[in-house]
Design brief:
There is one protein chain. By secondary structure, the protein is an alpha+beta fold. It has two domains: 125 residues, Creatinase/prolidase N-terminal domain (Creatine Amidinohydrolase, Chain A, domain 1), CATH 3.40.350.10; 253 residues, Creatine Amidinohydrolase (Alpha-Beta Complex). The chain contains ten helices and 19 strands. A six-stranded mixed sheet has the order 4-3-2-1-5-6. Strands 13-12-14-17-18 form a five-stranded antiparallel sheet. It has a four-stranded mixed sheet with strand order 7-8-9-19. α9 packs antiparallel against α10. The longest helix is centred in the middle third of the chain and has 24 residues. The protein is elongated. The termini are far apart. The model has no long low-confidence stretch (mean pLDDT 95).
Amino acid sequence: MELEKRVKILAQKLTEKDIDFALVLQNVDLFYFAGSICDGTLLISKNEDVLYFTRRGEERVKQESPWELIKIKGFHDIKEIIQSKKMPSSCIGLEFDVLPHKFFMHIQKLFPNSEFKNIGDDIRWQRRIKSTYELKMIRESASLCDKVMNIAKDIMKPGKREIDIAAEIEMKIRKQGNMPFHRMRGFSGEAIGQVVSGYSAGSPSTLLVPISGKGLYPVFPQGPSRKTIEENEPIIVDYVTTPNGYYGDETRTFVIGKLSSKMKEALDFCVFVMKDMENVAKAGIKAVDLYERGREWAKKYGFEENFMGINNNPVPFIGHGVGLEIDEHPFIARGMDYPLENGMVFAFEPKVIFEEGAVGIENTYVVNNSGVESLTKFKETMVEL
């Protein structure tokens, strides 16, 4: 029933855009509409016809997906099957936001008389509202996020390296079923769990995040490094978890000893912004208005140059949707001029970064009739060890 509803919604969008059918190729989208990922292509027509073309792995797909399965050798088989079923193909939908150009050129050659339209953004927008089933999955992931923080609290010791702490966390949650994959929609979107301390928190990265860490090698310039954790410096623990394919996201600030008054004031500010968001966020309020409200608080309290980035170079968001990917709608961000809706899930992450260290907090929320509910429950104040 879950998959049928998703197909029905997409089919309605195809009808609105005068698209005969969509060819879905990206893994997350395949899972969203078919419940199974294989080396293949999912066809969804505006009439709600669904065909799952697979090159290999068909026995597993039969167990996981309810849709008609057709074994193929390549894209050329798809064209022949479509023609044999007399399906119109004057306009075809493709995930232009993620589809490699090589694939597009091949499909275009097979259907030389067809028009092609983007359906990637439509799929992302459809996924902004989480179903009851999806919320159950995200709650499980958020609960595992809380376990990450408890593990960090128990194993954090001065003299340990960031990578040592991260490895212990990841080993323990892996045994509890966490999948160590971080799926992002954006180009070159690669992410990793964060255990970063002191000055390493402000290291620049190619990833559009406020805190990235130095990492181990330039080939992956983010995440925990070999830096030793010291007393009285802020330690950021920022993890996304997924025991079931759906993400939860949480950040907490730890310290072994005491934070300086500067860092404590900045963390108190982050918690204040978080609580302010909780008080005003509800269905109907625009995502961009929450973003601008956070920026105004930063300006008022003197953190404008360090809020969500360092050296007056902030990332253009304070929050992001989570689901099957880490970067989903709604984005609590610049230019996002759309309202929150019941069933949206997002992580809100006010953070302040200085040259000598960073502080911040992050919870995962669901929008409901009364406002927003935090799905991550670990204590929100500074964790002193």
